[in-house]
Amino acid sequence: MNIEHSTSNVEEAARQTAKRYDLAERLLEYAAMVVRLAESLPKTRAGNHVSDHLLRAGTSPLFNHGEAQAAESPDDFVHKMRICLKELRETDRALRLILKVPLVTDATQVQAALRETDELTRIFVASIRTAHVNKLREEPAEYKIAADTVEKTESEH
Fold it and tell me: Whole-prediction pTM value?
């Protein structure tokens, strides 16, 4: 007898969410996707140029995220996370260029990479924002007052 066990949508969504939020693993998969895509570009002058740039920018978030995990201070963490964000934005531009030229005949891989780039960009923006909020919570009151004064002074000008 074959009994199928149904999985509720909630359980499946939870399992998918758990998979999607192991950021280090997700960045490893993303970097591998970028490497495969770069290797598939034509071996022309333009293809090689874009491929080289895509490889540098698209694999950088994996390595810089590792650096961020070992950050020496909250400021160092935010700095390294911002580097990841910058590299993701550069990767987005390279992927869009690949589609615009076009440097591929089948855009499926590029579209998947663009979707993942967008999702990772959103994650890094939120992480940086959260790190700023957490940092403000930990600062002594006199620093918060000084920062508020500077912000008000800057906005008045």
Answer: 0.76
Residue 61's Cβ-count burial label (10 Å; 0-12, 13-18, 19+) is buried
CA distance 81 to 148: 24
87 neighbors 64 (Cβ within 8 angstroms):
yes
Which position has the token pair 């030229």?
101
Take residue 92 and report the two structure tokens written for it. 């987005």
Q: Where are the domains of the chain?
A: 18-156
3-state secondary structure of 43: coil
Give pLDDT tens digits for 46-74: 999 999 999 999 999 999 999 999 999 99
**Six-digit token pair at 68?**
């961020």
Q: To 5 degrees, how large is the angle CA 143–CA 73–CA 122?
A: 95
Contact 20, 27 (CB under 8 A): no
Q: Answer yes or no: are the C-beta atoms of 36 and 116 closer than 8 Å.
A: no
| Topology adopted by domain 18-156 | de novo design (two linked rop proteins) (1.20.1440)
The rounded distance, in Å, linking the Cα atoms of 65 and 24 is 7
Q: What is the pLDDT of residues 81-117, one digit of tens each?
A: 999 999 999 999 999 999 999 999 999 999 999 999 9
